[in-house]
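Schema walk-through. Below, the input block comes first and the output block second. Nothing else is stored per chain. Lengths vary across the set, and this one has 698 residues.
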Amino acid sequence: MLSLALTSMMDAVEAHSGGVYLLPGGGAVLEMAVVAGLPRSFAAPWERVGLNAPIPVAEAVRERRLVWVGGEEDMALHYPRIAVVLPYPFALAALPVATASRVYGAVYVTWPGSHPPELSDRERRELTTACDRLALRLERAAAQNRSVRAESDLLDTGPLGGVSDTLGTLEAARMVARLPYGLCSLDLSGRVGFANAAASELLDVPVRTLLGSQLWAAVPWLNDPVYEERYRAALISQHATSFVALRPPAEWLSFRLYPSTTGLTVRISRARAVSEMSPSEARAGDAPTRLVSMSQALSLAGALTETVSVHDVVGLVAEEIAPAVGSEALMLLGAQAGRLHVLGQHGYPDPHTAERFDGMPLSAPTPGARAVAHGVPAFFDSRQQLEHLYPALRSTPDGFAAWAFLPLIASGRPVGACVLAYSAPHRFSTHERAVLTSLAGLIAQALDRALLYDVKHQLAHGLQAALLPPSLPSLPGIEATARYLPATRGMEIGGDFYDLVPSPPLAAAVIGDVQGHNVTAAGLMGQIRTAVRAYTTVGQEPAEVMRSTNRLLIDLGSELFASCLYLRLDPVHGRAVMARAGHPPPLLRRADGRVRVLDLAGGPLLGIDASATYPTTEVELTPGCVLALYTDGLIETPGVDIEDAIADLGRRLGEAGDRPLEELADELVGHYATAEERIDDVALLLLRAGTAPDGGHG
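--- output ---
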């Protein structure tokens, strides 16, 4: 049923290839059931097609209409994924096979590139009627519970147009044998059906080895995708194509391919035009060059998946993609609230050239705005082309002579545009346009992820900054500084906190750590810090501040716990009273350089036991002493014993303790500040006792 319907449809409109897809009942994937006129391998990437895929047969089913692709440029513009794989001149029509109540599948047919750019009314009528008839047959089959399955592909379309009636087989073979050049006949799958003696001699392969084999498989030095690509180009476009190839060790042969709907005739001769050239010189022009090779494309795609921020995406496009496509400058534009925003640029001699696009409305008459607003790429081979369509740009030259404006579309919505600029006039071939448009799709996916990451990153840092003190207050007799480094995993936001509370008559200091590195931990940290401030302000003693905070955490019903270290500072009398809840012990460096670990008595983590108590310990804080309060991120390193880590921190505190407090803080956080990856937050609060203003200790 399917094969007959397809071939009669192709005959009616003189198409040279086609295929039928079936859509299983209620399914969302079209499955190729039969192809005719060309090997199935040509359509291998589309054996199974999701209904949301950006290809013609899926669009025909989605929209219940005939989809027409008038040629190579039309394909590159609207279906770049297909154009990258099949960058040849051909036309295509896709239609749904459907009744009023159900879609059964889809049909596509193709013509050589010589087909007019528009589908005629007769062709449209023939195709539509044929698909309607096929849909009715499938409907009857379904009503009779007869399953319709895939059928054998049809690669032979009939006799050789009566040639066999006018030319005897034996005489034809004699005639071909007399020719001074080689002749081979290939079927639609590339298998050799005939080869004359001259072909065997030129290829240096026996005829019996050639027969029945694909030419590039039987001749080792033709086993190159470039040569197979020429065969595909000839069959799909139905245009004669040619290439030259080096037969080892140093003889160049010319191959001319003459296609028809039944196969190919290959003429082989010595390539005299390149016989005097070196292999490297001749090889450079023996076939159309690819803008980006398959290995490059896979490499670029992999690299784009590893980008994290918008800055990363701009850098990768500038360093790898722009050079690969020959562009000297680029600009990435984002779209937000109806306006363009310059996300990054590279290669523009004057940065202000790119900055003028920042904030431009999407309705502005510029190619970048139109690319984003309409989702259609624009290519300008020269400045004259650009200024013809956008005369306002005559007054703002950027120093370049050709441009590609590529819309960046992710998940069906525009996220921006990529502008590639060339220093000299540049003709964009159809293949190049398809490749650039496809690369734009990869860039769009990476940029979409990067924009989300940057928003998350800004949110995290903004929230963290709002929850931590913007600066430490000035206290009589106490010099203080702090450092905070977020973990690099998760949202880069965490539960570490510190504060200095100037609550007369005695100030207080606190440091703590809520478990987790997320918004929940940060929100709970903010509540704890606020509660500690409130309890301090109303005059509660250190032990009571800890008990009250513990009860608050339990009352909030959070499943998170927190460690905390609280100090009531009395610089006038040279002392501090401390309470600890499961927090790492502080370090005290005396003025003489000796360091002591203050392993204070304490209670359990906050949020575990509502009846817990937190005993206090008084320590001396004489002039020149430095107290180092820190969270476990500063001392916990995989494979390092915690006691050894604290001892190492104490050693560094002892050695650098006389330096200015800011320098000392930088020394203690050390490599954590520049590390690319931190598994935990790091908080550090340093307090140095000085001379009290009333002449006492401080």
